[in-house]
Amino acid sequence: MSLSRSLGLSNVSPTSAAAGFLAWNWFYAYAVLSTRAMKSRLGIDHNVCPREDVTKYGEQAVRNGKITSAQLAKLKRNEAAHANTVEGFALFAVSEDPRSSILVETVAG
Known about the structure:
Blueprint: H1 3-6, H2 14-32, H3 36-42, H4 53-63, H5 69-93, H6 102-108
Helix pairs in contact: 2-5, 2-6, 4-5
């Protein structure tokens, strides 16, 4: 079964599929790859400055035995993937190249 069929996007024109692609990419960027749940589960989630949790408290948590170095490495990779996807969302939605832009394709028809 293909990904488009699983998302309910098969047998639809590219114009009508744009909303589904944008919704899925937004959900993937902001929910699936979010590091908040993983940091909370590992016990290094700080509400004061959550963007610096891994930088400030990651190595300290490894030294204190709260997490392993492998868990910290996985958390760093997940945080980088989240940042890349969030930064790339705007380029995915609106791009100067009409062949790679979802919204421009929708408006242009």
